[in-house]
Amino acid sequence: SYFKTMGSNSRLKHLIKLHLIVGARPNFMKMAPLYRELSLYSEKYEPLIIHTGQHYDEKMSKLFFNDLDMPKPAAYLNVGSASHGKQTAMIMERYEDLLLAGDKPDLVIVAGDVNSTIACALVAKKLYIPVAHLEAGLRSYDDRMPEEINRVLTDRISDILLTPSLDANKNLEKEGIEPDKIYFVGNIMIDSLLANKEKAETSNIFSNLNMLPNDSYALVTLHRPSNVDEYNCLKMLLIALSEISGKIKIIFPMHPRTKKNIYELGLSSILNTSSNLIITEPLGYLDFLKLEMNAKFILTDSGGIQEESTYFGIPCLTLRENTERPITITEGTNQIVDLNVESIVNSATDIIEGKNKKGKIPKYWDGKTAARIVKVLDDWFDKRERATEIIE
Ligand code: UD1
Ligand code: UDP
Predict the structure, then answer these.
(1) For the segment 88-127, what is each residue's pLDDT rounded down to a tens digit?
(2) DSSP strand E in 38-88: where?
(3) Is the Cα dihedral 131, 135, 136, 141 positive or negative?
(4) Integer Cα distance of 87 and 258 in angstroms
(5) Using a 6 Å cutoff on CB, does residue 81 contact ligand 1?
(6) Whose CA is nearest to atom 21 of ligand 2?
(7) Neighbouring residues of 12: CB distance < 8 A, sequence distance ≥ 6
(8) Catalytic residue among 19, 51, 133, 223, which?
(9) Would 116 disulfide with which of 52, 154, 159, 329, CB 3.0-4.6 Å?
(10) Pairing, β 75-76 against β 11-12
(11) Is pLDDT of 3 > 50?
């Protein structure tokens, strides 16, 4: 059999082949530490990065392979942008072709909640390939958020559910997922953060942006469809930012979705009124970490940035109605802000005036998540191996 042991020292006949799926920006910082950790056990595991091409701009993709020191993907599916149905379908078609054309992996590992996550999980599962979901169990309980649908469905069909915090375990158990599939391993994004913090200190982003090292500034990112696809909401957010920039410098690395909408909806003039509002292209991971660490506060609708700001102890104002990462609020520095100009400006002003929310770092956000995952995989494959032997 595939997993048959040879003698008492339990040597595998074949390497255990793993597909690590990446597609969109937040996937890279989740898979890089896992890839690195698995590579330490090259006598046992063969990890392969599969890139769907959901994000493809140099600044949304290739930059991260350099910053995070990841190898070139073993396969690139080149799907690009499309509507949800088309994009998900295209990933499924191409990933299925890849699986049918070559040796199937022993496990497919997907991360987070993007379209690439559910698409590849679904394809693998129907070909009887087990699936592990990294960052399982997060819930916003808001079905209008496309990611919520991706999360719930991916968790439902996954064989190994790797959670970042204990609230996620509870969510999964409530949904009837068997407890023995659920493993609390901690937050893998913090593995990347800790592995790159020192390198990030050496980034030249301040001088590149003509800033002084001790400049006080707020860091902003926005890309949720609920915020940036609709005229009134986007306009309201830009007005709020423009007002805040009267009090503090704002650095706003802009996601391509947001940039496109600002132009298409004719809203760019709001941003041109303030020279204190600096808009940049999406930034590399090291540059972005440096900006996060040194910010007075962060305004965002990103999932990952809510977590990173909690780790750094930097106040974060989340511009959304809810969050799938409530631990950043109950334990960390995160706060949900009502979506109107007055609330946003008032919350920002409070922080500028020194009313900061203090927080602590949640359990297992410690840089050792990838190591815990490899331990889970070791045990999981051992168990399967024993089961196979019993059947024989
Ligand atoms: C996707 C994820 C979201 C995640 C975000 C991270 C889904 C459903 N959404 O949202 O969960 O938080 O990535 O950044 O999977 N575009 C480019 N260049 C690129 C990529 C995108 O110009 O390299 C533009 C295109 O106009 C595209 C739009 O951005 O239509 C949206 O891209 P898409 O991947 O569909 O969704 P995101 O908003 O990036
Ligand atoms: N990030 C980055 N450059 C940027 C904006 C974000 O490197 O210009 C990083 C950020 O530090 C975090 C991740 O991208 O690690 C978050 O991705 P994003 O906000 O796109 O997605 P989400 O987490 O909301 O799904």
Answers:
(1) 999 999 999 999 998 899 999 999 999 999 999 999 999 9
(2) 45-51, 75-76
(3) negative
(4) 19
(5) yes
(6) 26
(7) 3, 5, 6, 44
(8) 223
(9) 52
(10) unpaired
(11) no
List the residue whose alpha carbon is closest to atom 3 of ligand 1.
114
183, amino acid identity: Y
Number of Cα atoms under 13 Å in the Cβ half of residue 286: 17
What's the one-letter identity of residue 370? A
Determine the pLDDT at residue 7: 38
Burial of residue 165 (number of CB atoms within 10 Å: 0-12, 13-18, 19+): buried
How many angstroms is it from 320 CA to the middle of ligand 2?
Answer: 16
Is 51 catalytic? The answer is no
Q: Which of 157, 68, 14 is nearest to 370 (CA)?
A: 68
**How many Å lie between the centroid of ligand 2 and the Cα of residue 100?**
33
Q: Which CA distances in Å does 176 have to 128, 157, 168, 277?
A: 21, 12, 13, 47
For ligand 2, atom 13, the nearest C-alpha belongs to: 26
What percent of the chain has a predicted confidence (pLDDT) above 70?
96
Q: Is the pLDDT score of 253 beyond 90? A: yes
Q: What is the pTM of this model?
A: 0.96
Cβ(81)–Cβ(87) below 8 Å: yes
Using the atom order of ligand 1, give the atom closest to the CA of residue 223.
Answer: 38
Task: Report how far ligand 2's centroid is from the alpha carbon of 380 (Å).
Answer: 31
Beta partners for residue 218, in sequence order: 250, 297
pLDDT at 386 over 90: no
Return the structure tokens found at 148: 């919520």
User: Among residues of the chain, what percentage have pLDDT more than 90?
Assistant: 91
Residue 9, pLDDT above cutoff 70: no
